[in-house]
Amino acid sequence: MKKMFIATPHHALLASEQLDNFEALWSREIAWFEEPNQRRGGWSGVGRLAIGQAGAVGLNLFVKKQENHGRRTLFHPINGEPTFRREFKRLQFLALHQFSAPKVLFYGETTVGGSQRAILVTEALEGYHSLDTLLLEQYPHLSRQQQRALIAKVATELRRFHRLGLVHRALYPKHIFVKDAQQDPQIALIDLEKARFSACALWRAFFDLAALSRHVEGVSMSRKLLFFKCYFGLTEQSLSPFNRWIFRRIAKRSQR
User: Fold this and answer.
1) Contact 34, 14 (CB under 8 A)
2) 0.90 exceeded by pTM
3) How many CB atoms lie within 10 A of CB 101?
4) Per residue in 73-112, pLDDT tens?
5) Contact 228, 159 (CB under 8 A)
6) What is the DSSP string of 5-66?
7) How far apart (Å, rounded) are the C-alpha atoms in residues 130 and 123?
8) How much is the pLDDT for 79?
9) Separation CA 132–CA 10 (nearest Å)
10) Which positions ≥6 away from 254 have C-beta within 8 Å?
11) What does each C-alpha distance from 153 to 178, 221, 240 come to in angstroms?
């Protein structure tokens, strides 16, 4: 059985490139962003593709393809479901709630000769830079006020993400993208195929913030404390015993 979604605003552009169906996208050669992962009994990869450049409208896309790269769930205990299906659902959910993330242009899945295949096409985040790159190249040159504004924006956007009931489960600096870090920072999240809903707000914060703290580089402990305060909506006063306990637990887990 074949499943397919095409974003209405871009249907005509994809059709003009003969990329408005699963088979065409699957057979289209793309430049791999990185070599496909061989795991879960199959493979999964992502590449870049530019379309419409010769016309008035051009788009830079990320095309993700996978084959037999599923995750077993309660409702799919045998073959599992494609990991891109979860990412597609999460991206659509975030779009519905106006949270910045890559826009989905196409999603499709099918079975060919017993092999489960899936494709996810998203629009590139133009003007954005990954947080890990930004911390190495731009952050040291930002003013104290700009650094604080950036930290506060990342913290409040992650809090908003968690308040939607989601935990990212791979919240590394390379998956947080920032635009206009010097003036008015805008934040977007990518790689949501591991994201899931969790009923426990404290667990959502604990799991993701520990992962982020563990992988962040070039940020002092005082700045991490500022991030923590901004995330929990605290002012500059001393932390309560409960807040100190949470911060220490996050710091301890981040050292694993």
Assistant:
1) no
2) yes
3) 22
4) 655 555 668 899 999 999 999 999 999 999 999 999 999 9
5) no
6) EE-GGGHHHHHHTT-SSHHHHHHS--EEEEEEEEETTEEEEEEEEEESTTSS--EEEEEEEE
7) 16
8) 64
9) 31
10) 210, 211, 212, 213, 214
11) 10, 18, 23
Helices (H), 138-240: 144-163, 201-215, 221-231
CA–CA separation, 67 and 59 (whole Å): 26
Domain boundaries, the chain: 3-123, 128-254
Is the distance from CB of 96 to CB of 106 less than 8 angstroms? no
* Residue 246, CA distances (Å) to 173, 193, 243 in order: 21, 27, 5
CATH superfamily label, 128-254: Transferase(Phosphotransferase) domain 1 (1.10.510.10)
The single-letter code of the amino acid at 26 is: W
Which CATH number is associated with domain 3-123?
3.30.200
* Tokens representing residue 169 in the block: 């489960």
